[in-house]
Amino acid sequence: MLKFKTLGQFIIEKQADFPFAKGELSRLLRDIGIAAKIVNREVNKAGLMDILGQAGSTNIQGESQQKLDVYANEQFIAALRCGGECCIVASEENEDIVPLSDQAKYIVAIDPLDGSSNIDVNVAVGTIFSIYRRVSASDCGLSDVLQKGSEQVAAGYVIYGSSTMLVYTTGKGVNGFTLDPSIGEFCLSHPNLQMPRTGTIYSVNEGNYVHFPTGVKQYIKYCQVEDQATGRPYTSRYIGSMVADLHRNLIKGGIFIYPVTASAPNGKLRLVYECNPMAFVIEQAGGRATNGSDRILDLEVTELHQRSPVFIGSDAMVRRAEAFMAAAGELTFNDYSL
Ligand code: P6P
Fold first, then answer.
1. Which CATH number covers residue 162?
2. 3-state DSSP call for residue 288?
3. What's the domain range around 298?
4. Which residue in 55, 140, 219, 308 has the fewest CB atoms around it within 10 Å?
């Protein structure tokens, strides 16, 4: 008798939460779980295979693709194509949308291997996914993808770390599953995840400090001031892998900020397949996600690879950072003289 509830059992059990569900979303979530196990197998032995390093190509972002980026992208698209429940995939690794089955009801937006530049140094990386219902009756296309984050029906991530976990929400809370390699199943290990309302960890790439908006600079200084009553100075933790930084903050409490910078005047992280899905998960766990003022899930989505500044994490910490942004009266990159 299994001690744990597997992802498959949990998905079927929760299907009852959706009276009109016929199982398509359940099968779609299971397809994602299958691809995650395949990718996990390669990530875990990347050091032993000729699958490390650069693929010699660049993605739409102009970023050099790692071999594992390409591999992970192929695995998720193959699993979604084979499962038949997805009409379009929008991937960080593909310039355009990838049409799959026009009869299917769901859209999947995915960052197949986020933080992959960390692979070569054995740092945790992740997959981020976002699921919408299609809006078109037929001939699904880009308009089915460019939906506000608030329209997501499910979202989650896989973190390939000291253990491999799949964390997801369908709008009724957040649940975490840890992969048990001995049985090849994701098992429920973190039921009903709740983000601490506040915390003492701030995650930001301080190497960009000179480029930060004044409000962010002031918030960072606030984090560094000695104040016992509020547990400051906070701890700075920045892995450079969004999934890993946000997963740690989800468990322990904290704030992650990727604001506008000189090299990223609209922010670096992508709205469709990074900010929106992570915002859905974090909000469902009781946290908060904005661009410094406006709720991420309410932002208009106009382009497939659109970027946004992101302030995401424990509710009280994000609100404090927003207060500094508002007091500085700025939400965009401020001019500065070096
Ligand atoms: P920087 C990884 O490349 C990524 O997209 C996120 O996972 C991560 O949070 C961020 O970029 C790191 O960016 O500029 O600090 O190296």
1. 3.30.540.10
2. strand
3. 201-327
4. 55
